[in-house]
Amino acid sequence: ILKSPEDYQVMCISPNGKWACGVYNDYSYSSYAFRWNLESGAIELLSTGDESEAWCISDEGVVSGTFTDRTYNVNHAAIMMPGYYDTEWHMLELPQGSVSGGCAYSITPDGHHMAGTVYVGKNIYQTYIWADGKIERALHEGGIAQAYTISPDGQAAGGWIDTGNRQAAYWKPDGTTQFLSEYKSPWSCVRKFSPDGKKILFWGGWNTETESVARLRAIYDIESGEVTDVPVITPEAAFELYDISGNYTLAGEESGRGYINVNGQGMYIDAYLAQLGIDVSTLGIIKPEGYDYYVIQRVECLSADDSVMALLYYDEEGALRSM
Fold this sequence. Notes:
Blueprint (H helix, E strand, L loop, with lengths): L7 E6 L5 E7 L5 E7 L5 E3 L6 E6 L5 E7 L9 E7 L3 E3 L7 E9 L5 E8 L3 E8 L2 E7 L4 E6 L6 E6 L3 E6 L5 E3 L9 E5 L5 E5 L11 E7 L5 E5 L7 E6 L5 E5 L2 E6 L2 E4 H7 L20 E7 L6 E6 L5 E3 L1
């Protein structure tokens, strides 16, 4: 069990489980990308003086995200640009127009393809797939959209398009766009492709046809077109899902408690760890007065085979950390 320094939040684990990346937020709320070698335990900040964010990481430890650039503007003013980090930050190819920033939110396991967003002109968010740093495909131009995830083969992407509010969007390999739900909300979004590329994790709104417990429209089967609903544990819960593994295990949170869904069974992460024989009380996690559980806030991400997971928690001094 590895634990991060204070205020380090893991955002992604590489599919092979050898790397993690994320963001360190300092006392002034500035953000700095980090890369974590899970085999050696070494954590490396990818910038110090200038801000950066690491959103996703390949099997070889290449990070995609956003970083401070001072070369784009003539006056050398700082701007957060989409890029990737191997041994240094590299800016991705940009579209024509006046660019005001961007981020590469996702990278394929082999590190060759990325998906993300570039801010162009006034309130225009354009989404792209890059191949080896060059724009390969424009997904959505001329409006407001975000591309948060890319398929393992780099030929499709997912995120949201603003159609009056956010709507979960799947940019298919054939060049067309499919909305996975008619539901529009600030939460509606494609979150992740499964490692085999067969399923899409998304936030598609609540299935109001069920009566016993709230169920979130959450898993889209690309081949069959079927959507699987995922039930919450507690009625009226705030529910978020962040990752899906190769075994279709789901990671997320429910009303501020880490959530995991294994073989279709949802449970709080502390109960799941107990099933694995792990004594949560020995992990240095806070248990506030009046609580009957230790505060693991979120299951953030998983390796493809479920062997590695990242948890966001508060330690016994109240500091936010990843483990």
